[in-house]
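TL;DR need C-alpha cells for one chain.
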Amino acid sequence: MKRLIAKTALVTTLAVVVMPAHAQSAARRAVDDLIAADRGYAARAGTLNVVEATDAMLSTGVVMSAAGTFHVGREAVMAQLRAVPENLTGRLEWAPVRGAISADGTHGFTFGFMTLVRADSTRVPLKYLAYWVKGADGWKVAVYRRVRRPDGDASTAEREPLVPERLVAPSPDPSVAARYAREIGDAERAFSDLAGKIGLGPAFTRNAAPDAMNMGGPGSADFLYGPEAIGAGVGGGQTGPSTLTWGPDTVLAASSGDLGVTIGHITAPGEAGAPPRRFPFFTVWRKVGATWKFVAE
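>> reply
TL;DR here they are.
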C-alpha cells in the first residue's frame, strides 16, 4: 500500500511538472507560427513590388496608418499605396524582431525592421508594427504601420517572443471579446486622463508593460524598449500636465482577454487660435496580471 501511495504521488508530481511544460510548448509553437507567417510574406515579397507584397498579407478590413491619416479597408489601403510611384517600382525587405500571440491563438503582433529598395537600388530604412488576426485563410494583418527610420545603430537581433502561459480555446460568443474590448478602451482613456494630470512621460512609464516597445520618434533609429526608456523618449524632457488628449475609435480584442489593440486619434490644441490638430494612433495592449498595459505602439 505504501508503494502504491508513493507511486501515485510520483505520477501526480510528474503531471504537475510536465503539463505546464507541454502547455508552454504548444503556446511557443503557436507564436512561432505567426512569426513564420510574417517571414513567409517577407520571402515572397522579393519578387513583388511594394503594393503587391503588402496586399498579400492584409485582411479585408485592415486599418493602415499612413500619410497622417487612417486608411480603412484593403481597397483604400491599396489606393493609398498606388498613389506613391516608388511603391509600384520598388520592393520591400523585412524581418520581425519580436512576435506575440493571445492565449486563444487568434490575435498577435509582430514588429521589426524593413527596407524599401527603390528601382535605382537605393535603400530606405523603415520600421513596422503589425497587428494580426488568424482566420480561415491563416494570419492576416488587421492593423498596420510602417515609418521611416534614420540611419544609426539598431538592435536587429530577434528577441524572445511573448508567449502566454497556455493556450485556451477561442470563445464563439462575440460578447466575450466585446467585454474585453470595453476594458481596453477604458484603459486607453484612463491613460490619456493620467497624462493630463502628471505629464506625458510619467503616464507612458506607468502604463507600459515591463516588456513594452515604442517605435520611437523621427530621430530614433531603434525601437524604445521598457517603461523608463519609453517614458523618457515620449516625454522629451517636458514637465507638467500634457495638453494632448486621445481615445479609441475602434478596439479589437482576443476572446482570451489578454491581448487587444486600440485604434484612434490624438488631439493637440491649435496654436494662435487655429483649430485642434488630430493624429492617428494605434496601441497594442496586453494583460499583465489583472491590469491592461500597453505592449507595443
